[in-house]
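Local shape tokens

___
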Amino acid sequence: MSRSSWSAIGVIGIESLLLLSTAVLADPRPVQIYGQRMEAMFVRLDVNGDGRLESGEVQGQPYLERRLQRRDSRGFLLLEDLKPRSTHPSGARLQQRFHQADRNGDGRIDRHECQAMPWLSRNFTSFDLDGDGALTLAELWTVQRSLAPRP
């Protein structure tokens, strides 16, 4: 998580952030805003204006660089690859990965369950916003939104 993300969390407080994350899960507007921010980032990065992001255009954007390195990558990204696929605030992909990791189905991912996902395991402590030793879908969505580029 970036310093600016942590400073924002420090300013508004963990309790406020958790209340906010619960409200976010009930409201589709943040998904629209997230989509608009991702579209603005895409347009900004697409320096040649061909409607595709290739490796040279995404340098310095670790998430996008990793997306291009996936086995199923076509070698470039389209806008549709970055925009949310559903109007549900936590996103279909995030929900799918969350439920895969939540092996006991209790709606929380503990340290043991997240070991199968190295990225999640490495960032477990910083993503556990309430410090209860488990990650919820609301916490992961809050973190994901905080990492999206600002206009």
About this structure: The beta strands are 109-110, 134-135.
